[in-house]
Specification:
Strand order of the largest sheet: 4-3-2-1-10-11
Number of domains: 1
CATH class: Alpha Beta
Helix content: 10-25%
Distance between the termini: 41 Å
């Protein structure tokens, strides 16, 4: 069976500056041989359907900044599997709303220069279902989807949810893992959540021979990946 690293919701260019180091360190710690990103690789605040922050750069500027940051991720993870997230989809949804056929658009790999990355809406690896989680919500979103799929599920999407829950019956044992996110909560793109009491959980997971493990990213004052250590 595979040894898989799972991380999600980078929302480039507003990823936490230590999240890449955290993911690379987990790969070394667990000796994983495969990696899956749970989607929302990019944020696309500039073309959001929601009200835009006045500090937001123009779409071309956001795109170029995101491409620049993506280079470090493609170098670290040249053969990544990505489950397409709702933020990743924003250009295609906007195009569709204007009657532009999908054939006129670049693929995700072409758009972002991720030649070795495989983009799809979901993957099944060792009987575990990997997806972004678009449309899921609640206190235990992956758990809810696990009940619908009747199989183990790993997903991102819900930034403030991270953890593992199990279902067991006489015939099988399955799990649901919410893998958290890697965002920089201080970025203006996330100002919409300033009144939310549930804060994002920065985390990632691994699946070793079918067993899931969740790793919380230490980002508190003085901890290994605190933001202050990454200031220029």
């Amino acid at each position: 069976m595979s040894k898989i690293l799972v991380f999600s919701d980078l929302h480039l260019p507003v990823v936490h500056p230590g999240y890449l180091d955290f993911c690379v360190d987990l790969r070394k710690k667990w000796k994983t041989t495969q990696a899956v990103c749970g989607g929302d690789v990019v944020d696309w605040h500039s073309i959001s359907f929601h009200p835009k922050n006045p500090n937001c750069p123009a779409p071309k500027d956001e795109y170029e900044n995101t491409r620049k940051q993506l280079r470090a991720w493609t170098k670290a993870f040249p053969n990544l599997s990505v489950t397409i997230g709702n933020h990743d989809e924003r250009p295609s949804i906007l195009a569709e709303s204007q009657g532009i056929p999908a054939e006129f658009l670049k693929t995700y790999a072409e758009l972002w220069g991720t030649k070795g990355w495989k983009w799809d809406y979901d993957f099944i690896i060792d009987n575990v279902y990997y997806c972004h989680g678009t449309g899921q919500s609640g206190i235990h979103p992956a758990w809810n989807l696990c009940g619908k799929m009747l199989m183990s599920v790993i997903m991102g999407h819900c930034h403030s949810r991270a953890g593992i829950k199990w279902r067991v019956n006489p015939l099988q044992r399955i799990f649901a893992m919410d893998v958290g996110c890697g965002i920089d909560i201080k970025a203006f793109q996330f100002a919409y959540g300033k009144h939310c009491k549930d804060r994002p959980v920065l985390a990632a997971g691994v699946v070793i021979d079918g067993m899931p493990y969740l790793e919380i990213m230490p980002i508190g004052p003085g901890e290994q990946y605190c933001k202050e250590k990454y200031r220029d």
